Amino acid sequence: MIIPKLHYITQGDTPKEILENIQKACASGAELVQLCLKDASEKKVLKLAKEAIKITSHFQTRLIINQYYKIAKDIKADGVHLEKTDACPTNIRKHLYTWQSIGGTANTLEDCKTLINKEVDYIILSPFKVIISSDNPMTALGLNGYTAIIEALKTKTPIIGFGNITTKDVAEILKTGVSGIAASEAITQNFDVIKTFNQLLSASSTLEQRHTFKNE
User: Fold this and answer.
1) 3-state helix, strand, coil in the chain (%, to 5)
2) What gap in Å lies between CA 200 and CA 211, rounded to an integer?
3) Tell me: the pLDDT tens digits for 166-189?
4) Rounded to whole angstroms, how far apart are CA atoms 25 and 23?
5) d(CA 107, CA 69)
6) pLDDT at residue 212, rounded to an integer
7) Mean of the per-residue pLDDT values for the chain?
8) Following CA atoms 67, 130, 33, 118 in sequence, which dihedral angle do they give, to the nearest 10 degrees?
9) Residue 61 · residue 33 · CB < 8 Å
10) What is the pLDDT of residue 203?
């Protein structure tokens, strides 16, 4: 299962705004959208998810549902992303289609090890920088934190960086061994930035291929 290198995590104050942002992200070249709606009823999320998948399907963009795995299965989304307080990925796997992916959020080396043992398909490691608006501010990992965790893990599971990341951070973050980037605000403020993110991320994979070729 290939996990795209750029994840757009949705923002918006209303369902209408979230859907407009998904439309803009897909039209700007987003390969994966994570639908994230906090403090809403399951019924409201389901209604929004059904509209979201119409948009993402049209653009052949992957849709991941944050937390609500039953909704992910119901609408045949590409997968579900679990926060640290959600149910165990191993148990949720039993309820999904075999082709659906499961991602998990981690903040520490131990979090990552736990998720890898539970065979998630990718990990979002956050925050890179402090997220000021967060109700539960966590220690920013920064480049040193990312490097230390990824060197200790030595895993093939894709690690995606998240937390106030801008295009200026990408080159340095990729040197830590991170596979890709998740962004929310940076993209919502200017959807054209998706092209820049994609160029920076694909340039890294081109360099990897060249490097491998030289060593063969």
Assistant:
1) 45, 15, 40
2) 17
3) 999 999 999 999 999 999 999 999
4) 6
5) 22
6) 45
7) 92
8) -50
9) yes
10) 78
Residue 147: burial class (beta carbons within 10 Å; 0-12, 13-18, 19+): middle
Spatial distance between the Cα atoms of 146 and 127, rounded to a whole number of angstroms = 10
Residue 189's CB is within 10 A of a number of other CB atoms, namely: 11
pLDDT tens per residue, range 91-129: 999 999 999 999 999 999 999 999 999 999 999 999 999
Residues in the chain: 216
Q: Residue 3 contacts by C-beta under 8 Å, 6 or more apart in sequence?
A: 32, 101, 103, 121, 122, 158, 160, 179, 180
d(CA 160, CA 61) in angstroms, rounded, equals: 18
CA angle 70–73–79, rounded 5-degree value: 105
Q: What is the DSSP string of 165-187?
A: --HHHHHHHHHTT--EEEESHHH
Tokens of 77: 């989304």
Exposed/middle/buried for 124, CB within 10 Å: 0-12, 13-18, 19+? Answer: buried
pLDDT confidence tier of residue 137, bands split at 50, 70 and 90: low
For residue 215, pLDDT beyond 70: no
**In the chain, where are the structural domains located?**
6-103+160-215
The CATH-assigned architecture of domain 6-103+160-215 is: Alpha-Beta Barrel (3.20)
